[in-house]
Structure to design on (410 residues):
């Protein structure tokens, strides 16, 4: 099985090399790993104590950031080595001040893992959520370096728990400790005789709560909103935008609309502007004097989470595709949230639907009916704000539990 795994990993890497000929992200993936030994050896300073913190991509970094901040405070004498598997993480965070060093994680293999770990010489390693690599985990175990997985979540359908997944099951057994999101994950690991687990919750709650407490005002959005109410459609795809476009003519005139597409490409933005009509204007072309504009299209990256602080209603995209995007960034402000039908894989969405702080719709009429229901039912939005705020408050605190465990188990 080792051989099959190694062949699969090498084939995956080879496929990315081929894709790099015509795909920018694949090219970054390849170029970022060239001469990795010499790059790392020349960057590191001798005599340092180090911690390794690994994230698959940018999303996992955001999820694990509260833990990274806490580790930096709790282990001030240690240097933080931050690694990424994908360019979305590395390219965005290669200069992040939280880390002392930022590298791509070399492709998994018996020699790469051994050489990388011997170069870094971490006293502990932390992996966020899922990124399981056989040879890295084995090498950590062989070298008696503790390796922890943060905000993991497990389901019975995963390969670890299948009759044909014994090879992958061994990875779990070599991990020093799992900090999991829910009781179901703990019970599943226990059932499979993997006892090194603690339920701490999801560190994303800590992340969004921290961000909300340190939020910065957006003067342009404040001016655009004025004394109106604001409907925000975030991380939208084509199917979502069709629904939002159909809703807008029927939406009360005291509502302004902001649409933040998931992809920021010129062709995409032009198409969206055409769909939304003459009332729509791009953020990059908007002037504060244009207070008549009703619809604002955000055509840059990085504003969405801060925009949610001004929203009175939020629609989250992705629910008519592979699955909804981040809803916690909006929920932390108590805002009522609406999304499409593909949300069941996301614990927070499932729970907020249960508590009636978020709502799933299946079509254009469903969106219109739900929006009108929320707007016109007296006290409904205020009640939802209480539900969502309480939900965030009840679920934050994972980071403190993780650090307390490390303090008690040095």
């Amino acid at each position: 099985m080792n051989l099959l795994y190694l062949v699969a990993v090498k084939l995956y890497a080879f496929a990315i090399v081929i894709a790099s000929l015509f795909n920018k992200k694949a090219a970054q993936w390849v170029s970022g790993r060239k001469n990795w030994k010499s790059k790392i050896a020349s960057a590191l300073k001798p005599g340092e104590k180090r911690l390794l913190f690994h994230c698959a991509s940018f999303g996992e970094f955001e999820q694990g950031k509260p833990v990274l901040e806490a580790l930096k405070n709790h282990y001030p004498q240690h240097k933080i080595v931050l690694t990424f598997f994908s360019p979305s993480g590395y390219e965005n965070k290669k200069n992040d001040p939280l880390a002392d060093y930022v590298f791509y994680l070399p492709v998994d293999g018996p020699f790469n893992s051994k050489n990388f770990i011997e170069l870094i010489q971490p006293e502990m390693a932390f992996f966020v959520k899922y990124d399981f690599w056989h040879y890295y985990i084995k090498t950590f175990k062989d070298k008696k370096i503790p390796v922890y997985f943060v905000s993991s979540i497990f389901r019975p359908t995963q390969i670890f728990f299948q009759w044909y997944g014994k090879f992958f099951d061994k990875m779990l057994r070599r991990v020093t400790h799992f900090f999991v999101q829910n009781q179901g994950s703990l019970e599943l690991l226990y059932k499979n005789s993997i006892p090194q687990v603690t339920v701490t919750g999801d560190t994303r709650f800590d992340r969004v709560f921290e961000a909300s407490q340190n939020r910065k005002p957006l003067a342009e959005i404040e001016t655009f909103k004025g004394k109106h109410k604001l409907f925000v459609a975030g991380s939208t795809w084509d199917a979502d935008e069709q629904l939002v476009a159909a809703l807008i003519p029927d939406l009360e005139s005291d509502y302004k609309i902001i649409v933040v597409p998931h992809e920021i490409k010129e062709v995409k933005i032009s198409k969206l502007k055409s769909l939304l009509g003459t009332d729509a204007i791009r953020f990059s072309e908007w002037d504060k004097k244009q207070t008549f504009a009703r619809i604002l299209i955000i055509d840059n990256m990085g504003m969405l989470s801060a925009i949610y602080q001004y929203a009175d209603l939020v629609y989250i995209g992705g629910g008519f595709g592979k699955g909804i995007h981040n809803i916690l960034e909006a929920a932390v402000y108590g805002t009522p949230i609406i999304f499409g039908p593909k949300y069941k894989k996301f614990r927070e969405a499932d729970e907020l639907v249960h508590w009636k702080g978020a709502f799933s719709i299946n079509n254009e009429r469903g969106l219109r009916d739900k929006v009108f229901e929320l707007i016109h039912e007296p006290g409904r939005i205020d009640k939802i704000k209480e539900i969502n705020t309480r939900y965030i408050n009840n679920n934050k605190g994972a980071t403190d539990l993780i650090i307390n465990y490390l303090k008690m188990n040095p």
About this structure: The chain has 19 helices and 14 strands. The first strand starts at residue 49 and ends at 55. The mean pLDDT is 95. The chain has two domains: 2-202+397-408, 218-387.
